[in-house]
Write a structure and sequence with these properties.
41% of the residues lie in helices and 12% in strands. The chain is built from 12 helices and 10 strands.
Length: 326
């Protein structure tokens, strides 16, 4: 399929590049770092060779979210966003942008989101999970009450918010001790992000702001497969609901979330996600440079789904969600 659009596609600036070291074997670092720092050379060749018209670019992880000082986080976010705006301006037909945000400070994050949407023409934001503030163990999740003004502004701006993974902090990683292979995209990324998403759903956030649009990668971080059990728990027990949300959490997944195929090139998983949230809420992505564009594109182009759904997932859902003028 030609004309595909991807929206979990990363880059780095000099100040954040080293944040991506350690996720792959050491002998891959030369290759990975080159991929991260390139936008207009190999990246475009990979896109052209695999029928990919556009990437919506975002900063690598954890980057801004792991900067303990709120003002330094704001500085790096603004620097990355200004750099990205310059790159998009060179080829707006091939690239668009997600904002990096200093979520350590609600006012700073809200102002930067507004700047990126209104002045820089960005298509939303991508945030790398929880943010650390002042000390390494002070982790902020975005269902907390202090984020009320941020979410209100995100809804008012109609700014999709991509909740991207990061590893749990070492103090909360005892279950992985002795098994470092479970960290990162193997398992810990998905579990950490799924819990964060469930917290947002259960908090009542989408009752207060029904227009919010949240994006999850990797085919939904396991939530489509598990959401029925999350709601059902022990269905024969008449237990009171233990959280403020007014609806079953599956309804928020279906009404306020979009899922991407980034880094999860499995047809059975795609079909499960389609059955749970519908083909209108799934979008093609590759997870470049951590995954290969050709692996993602060749799988998707051959996946056993209808051509109508392939067109939606590969292109038109993104055009509609981000109001792209192509």
């Amino acid at each position: 399929m030609n004309g595909k659009i991807g929206l979990e596609e990363h880059f780095a600036i000099e100040q954040t590049l080293q944040d991506s070291s350690g996720f792959l074997a050491d002998d891959c670092w030369t290759e990975l770092s080159a991929r991260l720092m390139d936008i207009h050379d190999r990246r475009l060749r990979e896109m052209d060779a695999n029928g990919m018209e556009m990437m919506i670019l975002s900063l690598n992880a954890p980057a801004v979210q792991a900067i303990l000082d709120r003002h330094k986080a704001d500085e790096i976010a603004r620097r990355a966003n200004d750099f990205l705006a310059e790159q998009v301006a060179r080829r707006p037909d091939r690239f668009q942008a997600f904002a990096a945000l200093p979520m350590q400070d609600v006012d700073l994050a809200t102002r930067e989101l507004e700047r990126c949407m209104k002045e820089l023409g960005f298509k939303g934001a991508l945030v790398n999970g929880f943010s650390q503030l002042d000390t390494p163990d002070n982790c902020l999740y975005y269902d907390a009450p202090q984020y009320a003004a941020f979410w209100a502004q995100a809804e008012a701006l109609d700014a999709p918010f991509y909740l991207h993974p990061r590893n749990p902090i070492p103090a909360w990683s005892q279950i992985y001790q002795g098994h470092p292979w479970l960290m990162g995209p193997t398992w810990a990324f998905g579990q950490e992000t799924a819990v964060h998403a469930l917290r947002l759903m259960a908090s009542g956030l989408f009752d207060r702001h029904p227009g919010l649009k949240i994006i999850l990668g990797h085919m939904g971080e396991g939530l489509p497969y598990s959401i029925w059990r999350v709601d059902n728990r022990n269905g024969w027990v008449d237990a009171p609901k233990a959280y403020p949300a007014k609806k079953p959490l599956a309804e928020y997944l279906q009404q306020n979330f979009w899922l991407t195929t980034s880094g999860n090139f499995r047809t059975q998983t795609l079909i499960d996600a389609m059955l749970e949230v519908g083909a209108d809420r799934i979008l093609f992505s590759t997870d470049w440079p951590f995954e290969n564009v050709d692996h993602a594109a060749q799988w998707f182009d051959a996946a056993s789904i209808s051509e109508a759904d392939r067109l939606k997932i590969g292109r038109t859902n993104a055009v509609n969600l981000f109001k792209l003028k192509l």
